[in-house]
Design brief:
mainly alpha; about 10% strand
């Protein structure tokens, strides 16, 4: 049995394939737990910049909520089951954060996923088309985003193990690495369990 591969593997390769639909503005009212109004988005973007060390952006990216099933299908249309545990993703083509409508953005743990995706937004702004150019770049980008998410959680009293799958991920040797597909391999179960 293979060790599980973190959703990031599907996430990056699926999302780099740009989308064409336009994201509608988020309908936001204080009674919606998953609501990300302008003030909250600006605050979370500030946290993403401070915790990642990336240059701040003037405006946060748009956000669009999906049901968990619709998000999995939207990100991985050919294999939605591979993305069934996906919570949020930054869509490079739309420069938009897509997230589960089940998130309660009043909770620090749920907000931390948005901070993570905002780091990807800042990475995209800083690197442009060079973002995710190699497998190593993808792993480095995820490490930076998970570190910011973890920092946000620690500062807000949240306890959630984030980024644990990065320990078992590695990139294929350069000669074997397909160009720009973001594919990440997991160590065999024996190696992963030996830690």
């Amino acid at each position: 049995m293979r060790a599980p591969v973190v959703a990031v593997a599907c996430l990056w390769s699926c999302v780099v394939a740009t989308a064409t639909e336009a994201a509608p503005p988020t309908d936001c009212s204080p009674s919606r737990p998953g609501c990300a109004d302008r003030e909250l988005r600006a605050d979370l973007l500030g946290w993403a910049a401070r915790l990642s060390g990336l240059p701040a952006a003037a405006e946060p990216p748009p956000m669009r909520a999906y049901s968990p099933e619709a998000l999995a299908w939207r990100v991985c249309p050919e294999r939605p089951q591979a993305c069934r545990n996906l919570v949020a993703v930054y869509d490079i083509g739309l420069a938009t954060v897509l997230y589960r409508d089940t998130l309660d953005l009043r909770e620090p743990a749920d907000r931390s996923f948005i901070v993570h995706e905002f780091v990807h937004h800042l990475q995209h702004r800083a690197l442009g088309d060079r973002i995710g150019a190699t497998c190593e770049d993808v792993v480095a980008a995820e490490r930076q985003a998970y570190a910011a998410q973890d920092g946000y959680l620690r500062r807000h009293g949240g306890m959630l193990p984030v980024g644990t799958g990065l320990r078992t991920m590695h990139c294929p040797p350069r000669a074997e690495a397909p160009a720009r597909d973001g594919t990440l391999a997991a160590e065999p179960p024996a190696a992963a369990g030996a830690r």
